[in-house]
Design goal:
Shape: globular
CATH architecture of the largest domain: 3-Layer(aba) Sandwich
CATH topology of the largest domain: Aldehyde Dehydrogenase, Chain A, domain 1
CATH class of the largest domain: Alpha Beta
Number of domains: 2
Radius of gyration: 23 Å
Number of helices: 15
Largest sheet: 7 strands, mixed
Distance between the termini: 68 Å
CATH superfamily of the largest domain: Aldehyde Dehydrogenase, Chain A, domain 1
Number of strands: 22
Length: 487
Amino acid sequence: MSLSFDPKSVALPTGHFIGGTYVSGPAEIDVVAPSDGRGLAAIPTADVGVVDQAVQAAKAALVTSGWASVRPRERVRALHAWADLIEAEAQTLARIEAVASSRPIAEALPGDVMIAAEQIRFFAEFADKECGDLVPTSDGQMGFIASEPYGVVGAITAWNVPLALAGWKLGPALAAGNAVVLKPSEMTPFSTLYLAELSVRAGLPAGLINIVLGDGPTTGAALVAHPEIGKISFTGSTRAGAAIMENIARTGIKPMTLELGGKSPQLVFADADLDLAAQCIARGILGNAGQGCVAGSRVIAAREIADELSDRIAARMQAIAPGPTWEETSTYSPIISERQLQRIDGIVDAARAGGADVLCGGARIEREGTFYQPTILARVAGGSVALAEEIFGPVLTLQPFDTEEEALELSRHPTYGLCSGLFTRDLSRTMRMVRKLEAGAVWVNRYGRSRDHILPTGGWKASGLGKDLGREAYLANRRTKSVLIDL
């Protein structure tokens, strides 16, 4: 059966989701489909009052349901039931995701939707297995470390992979016994709304998940500053993460997890399997048209193989199949907006004007929608924006090196430290480089996360604070209390 569908046949939820029901408001933000520029719907903006309504609904749900204090296995069962319904409603979720985002239906259905369900199952299993610790103390005393949820957690997600990011935030927070108020991106809100609706239909207490719509300066700022939000989890740009830190410092100290931008290097040594390297590098920049914080956008290659490697990558780049996200044959994503496409094109033009060679791509794809050609830039000037800033588009830079030390020096970035890729057959070199690469994740002879969900993700430097995924994400949604008893 074909996965293709008529985008006009998809019903999109458009209100806030608070206390288990949709709450309407003035339509203030127009949401546009990047595949063809068609207006999809208008959504409201949650102000301080609406955000407070969501927080109070979350608090009430915790009290009436006893979610934080029920037997942990009950939380596990409830979250598994939600994951079951997500899988049963996979086609509907995938179509909502595809029509209103940059995610092609052929990737959204087996990928994004199922990943969200997997993450909820993964984190559910921590609920009855993680606990406090009994610690050694002097005779006549008993000391232990108790672990408790925060209460209401605030979450803000980016627009690039809405469903997967919602799973990142909701899964560990709920498994840990919290309620959540989540703000999705105003550019891609619909699948997150339907995900929350499914939670209530699956039997989770109404109000445990609340979704508030709106932009960052109004809704996001109100959520971060709310005094009854115990913790903030954010995925987005480094600039927005800095604004959140400033807001928290100004309005009331609380813990935060920030998964931010990246400018990740991929180092390829002369002994690497070049076909494997080219395949991984191309996939790492073509996925979602480079619109991902982990995009491996800086290729640093041994000089003797740099030209051959770039030719192999370019061949894969030229095999893309751009098209509407609701067509099964489309495997290459549109850029999320005209504004973002113009930014990408401006960075490429500036690099070209500064003396860079455009080995392939370098222009808009002339078709309906906002599509940009996969691009490789060589001989990029050291101070170029193309090397310094996160482009968030399908643009690679290529830099040759002669020694291992030079490769390491080129890999270092003054701002970012999210991920690194390394391609070599030399185990000793691998271990040396893994220790020296300045990144929160290093992928060797591959590029990208697996679907095991056990490895935490999070960056160094301005690429983030704290971890998503893994055991660390569950523990980040619990706080500890030290207890000492004289017997």
